[in-house]
Design goal:
- The chain is built from 1 helix and 3 strands.
- With 108 residues, the chain is of the alpha+beta class.
- It has a 3-stranded antiparallel sheet.
- The radius of gyration is 30 Å and the shape is flat.
Length: 108
């Protein structure tokens, strides 16, 4: 049932028909970005710090080396995880108090 192919259906990748008039894979139909400065580092935004690491600017984080940015983002992640743990604890303790009140009213 599944092994048979109807007549006229391509059998594999080598039998696949490609319509060249569509221009598939041709990048000529796409325009490049008007302002590619957003994607390219300026000469003054990346500076060698002399210790083998480049200092560069990341919007919102400032001007640091890659290791400095990694330390900053690790600290932010740690604080976010602590905040998440605190919110989960607060939510669970609040629902536990509500469950105790419901249990007290039902048992009467």
């Amino acid at each position: 049932m599944f092994g048979k192919r109807p007549a006229g259906v391509p059998g594999g990748r080598e039998d696949t028909l490609v319509d060249e008039s569509l221009g598939v894979g041709d990048a000529a139909g796409y325009d490049s970005a008007e302002d590619d400065s957003l994607y390219r580092a300026d000469a003054d935004s990346v500076v060698d710090d002399g210790a083998g690491g480049a200092v560069f600017t990341v919007p919102g984080l400032g001007r640091r080396s890659a290791a400095g940015h990694q330390r900053m983002l690790s600290a932010v992640l740690a604080l976010a995880l602590l905040g998440l743990v605190a919110v989960v604890y607060w939510t669970i303790s609040g629902t536990d108090r509500a469950a105790q009140q419901v249990a007290a009213t039902v048992s009467r």
